[in-house]
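#structure-requests
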Amino acid sequence: MEDVLDFDINKSLKYYLSEPGTVPTPEADGTLIDCENDPDALNDALLNGVVDPIVDSIAENPDNLARKSTFDSLQFILKSASLLQVTTLSKVFDLIISGFSSEADVINEENGTEDQDTVCQYKRLLEMYGFLLQWCISAVECKAAERPPVTAPPRGRGAGKGSKAKTNGAEGSWDSTTQLQSALETMCK
């Protein structure tokens, strides 16, 4: 595995709670770092090019979150959450929930382990996932608060086939409730 992050939950929380934008992300993907001074350059295509390999890596092994480049890239993306499209934020949220769930499943299967190194590794990974999940929940709640509530299309006369009540795809009908519920269920594992 490439360089493993020496994660300190207290240090990370100190940065995050004082000002999330100050969280250092020196090992983030180069394309993200190039956008640090030009946030408008953070578009879906660029972000998907960074997030998709991370999704594949964590799907292969949830422990891959501990890679410096992976963790810093996710932190960089979360620092920019207010600029993200909901589809990208939703993808990152799903990634973190899925990785956290997989790691919790592995830990539950090996619950009786006495090896202190293994216990410390599990603890560190759970802290990393928990930290990112907390940040992502906060970002999703802020994004959901920006959006008008999703309402049912009007019924009755004029709301038939020719009505223009359609939304603009996932962007217009995004509802974070299911993802937030899934996050809470995952934390209960």
